[in-house]
Write a structure and sequence with these properties.
Elements lengths: L2 E2 L2 H9 L5 E6 L4 H16 L4 E6 L4 H6 L7 E6 L2 E7 L4 H12 L1
Parallel strand pairs: 1-3, 2-3
Antiparallel strand pairs: 2-4, 4-5
């Protein structure tokens, strides 16, 4: 299972991370988010050299606002503390995986 982040640990875990990070912004009531959950969990276990984390927008609406998350799920790819890619909605596992692999290599 990927780690769930809060405003308190977001800077340390994402912005100051030495490795690329995929952040999944989601909510419990979101059907597409539930569809993507197994994909995200699988990526978090499979991908080496990057982190996969989750942010529940219901609990962390400040982070959702800060990163202009308007629809969920939203996937933000961070490298060296900056957003380098973004995807919204139900996304093919291969597409997510390839974007993450690009950041690692």
């Amino acid at each position: 299972m990927s780690d769930s982040l809060t405003q308190k640990n977001f800077d340390k875990e994402v912005l100051k991370s030495k490795v690329p990070v995929l952040v999944d912004f989601w909510a419990e009531w979101c059907g597409p988010c539930k569809m993507m959950a197994p994909v995200i969990d699988e990526l978090s276990k499979k991908v080496k050299g990057a982190k996969v984390v989750k942010v529940n927008i219901e609990e962390e609406d400040g982070l959702a606002s800060k990163y202009n998350v308007m629809s969920i799920p939203t996937f933000l790819f961070f490298k060296n503390g900056k957003i380098v890619d973004q995807m919204v909605g139900v996304v093919d596992k291969e597409k997510l995986s390839k974007s993450l692999e690009k950041l690692i290599n």
